[in-house]
Amino acid sequence: MKIASFNINGIKARALALPQWLDEAAPDVVVLQEIKSIDENFPREIFEERGYRVETHGQKSFNGVAILSKLPLEDVTRGLPGDDADEQARWIEATVMGDVPVRVCGLYLPNGNPVEIEDGAPKPGGKYAYKLAWMRRMKARAKALLALEEPFLMAGDYNIIPQDEDAKRPEVWQEDALARPESRAAYREILNLGFTEAFRARTLGPGHYSFWDYQAGAWNRDDGIRIDHFLLSPHCADLLRDCQIDKEVRGREKPSDHVPIWVELAA
Questions:
Q1: Mean pLDDT, residues 224-236 taken together
Q2: pLDDT tens-digit profile of 75-97?
Q3: Using alpha carbons only, how large is the chain's radius of gyration in Å?
Q4: Strand arrangement of the beta sheet that strand 73-78 belongs to
Q5: What pLDDT was estimated at residue 216?
Q6: Checking CA distances to 98, which of 37, 163, 233, 267 falls within 20 to 30 Å?
Q7: Helical spans, DSSP H, in the chain
Q8: Which residues contact 142 (CB under 8 A, 6 or more apart)?
Q9: Mean pLDDT score across all residues of the chain
């Protein structure tokens, strides 16, 4: 089973580039982020004609996540538990019914900028406080799923640079919400519950990125960061065969600022 994650930065803008990549890469399952579309306006037919089932959790103009699957999906749920007042569409789950059923959680973790600190702590009501609170809810959901002792993974745009080696110029990100100590600590708290970070389980060292800003020639200078991740539960990590980043997609016509990342599982 090949499962991919791709922040497409707008389904309308990627209406040609995304199907082209799907035809080439042939993933069984894809989790998408930043579809920037309400459910009713998502172009389902583009994907259904390629054999994908389509489940979306959309939002007008912002955010939005989706799961595309050539395999049957069961128990589809939308929204990250823990805050009924949260209206941002950033989380979707479904069980993919392969030879081994795998629970797939697609996520678009809040960016968190601008960072507002008040009395030494994130300012209540600010975007950075929302990011850290969202990560606490994610940790709680991860613990609940781990307790089931079944294969599952959490994949998507985490908006977290885990370590300095995951940025071409780590010094420029030190005060950014993607790399601040509080953000990295919250990420490690989730990772340390027992997850395997799939890409780093297969590839070590610097120079591997999944995002290049549109500004200042970042792509041409390979001035990137790695913020798109797969976290695998212990039962899912046992199934891991490979994890790669499709870097070349960034150099194509009308690209997203992110590129796909994928895992191959023995499932």
A1: 98
A2: 999 999 999 999 999 999 999 99
A3: 17
A4: 73-78, 91-96, 102-108, 152-157, 228-232, 196-197
A5: 87
A6: 37
A7: 17-25, 44-48, 127-146, 181-191, 198-202, 234-237
A8: 154, 190, 193, 195, 231
A9: 97
